[in-house]
Each structure stands twice: as structure tokens, then as C-alpha cells.
Design brief:
heterodimer, A: mainly alpha, two-stranded parallel ribbon, B: globular
């Protein structure tokens, strides 16, 4: 009798141990863990992208940008810097957003979602949109593909960048 | 920190509603009174970020005050306590105000933006 029960006890013990070690991917604890892990990855990527921004840009050769008024040039370069920065953090941001959606939809807790909404605002004002009203977005996207502007950069205010015509 | 020499010497100015709103938004993202607590004792001008009722302040900000490049270096050092994602948002806010501000207010936001 003693020996007949042993396999049953073994099976029950195995199930019990496995149940504790397995983590159901949709429980709140796992979702929160994934959320925090992907946020850490995103923060690390921001560090990498912000390090890239330390490079100094002193000159840009571009006929279209050259033809724009100085005030508009500043705003255009700000938009380009935002585009290339977002390109740098894109993959990690997508992972965090997915984890955030999973967490919020399963738990109903909107705390992290509300924080994320605040951290995603573009802060473009009406004046900025008006200033860019006559600009073809395709021209801005072309600038974001130029080798000199392709990687993250910080446009320092009050520090002039020389914008010249292209040498063809 | 990259600053144009002498550029960040900003005189005190009366903050416009746009500046007040931007500072309010910055405080929603990160508590500026905690971040700037130490330097507020030495540079009362930065009280602009926390409001006149903040208890850590020895006195109200003077009506005329010149911020030196050194003050901005201290500001930049203090702001490093802010997480990178939050700091990026503070930078966006600073640019959006600098873009439309004029005079010393523009200079102030340029310096905030460059220091972030």
C-alpha cells in the first residue's frame, strides 16, 4: 500500500512545484514586471540616443533649408531632431507601449497609461504649426535622411549652425 | 553643458502666462522643487520653477537678478537627477516656449533648453 501511493504523491508534488514555478503571462504581477522591465530598456535606449546627441553639428549643406527664413530653419531643425530621436528609441518604445497596453487592459489600472500620455506629448504649439503650414512634410523627412542629420542631434538654441547651399 | 559664453546671463523678467503654464507642466512631469532644492538657496531666481510659496526659500526672488553661466551649470547638474525620458519632455516644453518668447524670457528658455 505504501509503495502504491508513492507514484501518486510524486505526481501531485510535481504538479504543485510546477504550478509555483510557472508564471502565467497574464497575471497582474507578471504584467507589471514586464512593464517595468520594458521601461528600463527604454530608459537605457534613451541614454544611448542622448549620448549620440552630444555630437556637434556645425554645418548643413542643403539648398531647400538654406532657402528658408532663419526663424523657420530653427523650427524645421527642431522637428528633424525630434524625428531622428524617435527613430532611435522606436523599437524599445513599441515594446513598452505593448507591455503598457497589456497591463492596462488586463488590470484596468490606468496609472501608468496616464503617466505615459504625459511623457508622449509633443508640445507643438499653434504658433509652431502655423509657422510650418506652408512646408511640405516630405521636405522635412528628406532632411531627416541626410547623413549629417540621420542620427540624434541636439539643436542648441542661440548657437548658430552654418547652413549653406549644396556644392554640386 | 554647451553654452555660448556670456549668453546665459539673463535678467529677471515678469513671467508671461505661457511661461507660468510651461513651468506648471514641467512640475507635472517632475517635481522641480525637489530637483532644484539645493540650488534655490543660492540662486533665488530659480524660484520661478517652484513658485513663491515654496518653504525651502530664504526669501522671495529679487526683482532684478543676473544668472551667470555658472548658475546654469549648477542647474544642469541638478537636473541630471531627472530620469532621461522625463528630461526629454522637459526639453520639449522649454523649446516650445523659447520658440515664441521674446527678450529676456526667450534667453531664459533658451538657456533652460540648452541645459537640459
Amino acid at each position: 500500500m505504501h509503495y502504491k501511493l508513492s507514484p501518486l504523491i510524486f505526481v501531485l508534488l510535481t504538479i504543485s512545484v510546477n504550478a509555483q514555478s510557472l508564471s502565467w503571462p497574464y497575471d497582474h504581477k507578471s504584467l507589471l514586471k514586464e512593464l517595468k522591465s520594458t521601461y528600463s530598456q527604454l530608459e537605457i535606449k534613451h541614454g544611448f540616443c542622448q549620448d549620440l546627441r552630444k555630437r556637434e553639428i556645425t554645418q548643413i549643406e542643403n539648398n531647400w533649408l538654406y532657402a528658408q527664413p532663419k526663424k523657420k530653419q530653427e523650427l524645421i531643425l527642431h522637428v528633424v531632431s525630434s524625428i531622428v530621436y524617435e527613430r532611435c528609441t522606436e523599437a524599445e518604445e513599441a515594446q513598452y507601449t505593448m507591455a503598457l497596453m497589456n497591463y492596462t487592459s488586463e488590470t484596468g489600472d490606468k496609472t501608468f497609461l496616464n503617466e505615459w500620455l504625459l511623457l508622449n506629448k509633443s508640445y507643438y504649439t499653434k504658433e509652431m504649426f502655423d509657422e510650418l503650414a506652408d512646408i511640405d512634410p516630405a521636405d522635412i523627412l528628406k532632411l531627416a535622411e541626410l547623413p549629417v542629420l540621420y542620427y540624434p542631434f541636439k539643436l542648441l538654441l542661440g548657437v548658430d549652425i552654418t547652413i549653406t547651399k549644396e556644392n554640386n | 553643458l554647451k553654452l555660448k559664453s556670456q549668453y546665459c546671463e539673463v535678467k529677471a523678467f515678469n513671467p508671461s502666462p505661457r511661461t507660468k503654464e510651461a513651468i506648471k507642466e514641467m512640475n507635472r512631469i517632475s517635481d522641480m522643487s525637489t530637483i532644484l532644492q539645493r540650488m534655490l538657496m543660492f540662486t533665488p531666481f530659480f524660484q520661478i520653477f517652484v513658485g513663491p510659496s515654496h518653504k525651502a526659500l530664504p526669501s522671495a526672488a529679487p526683482s532684478s537678478y543676473q544668472l551667470s553661466v555658472q548658475d546654469w551649470i549648477l542647474f544642469a547638474d541638478s537636473i541630471r537627477a531627472v530620469g532621461l525620458i522625463e528630461r526629454r519632455q522637459l526639453e520639449k516644453i522649454a523649446f516650445s516656449v523659447a520658440n515664441t518668447a521674446r527678450g529676456d524670457e526667450r534667453k531664459f528658455w533658451e538657456c533652460v533648453y540648452n541645459a537640459l
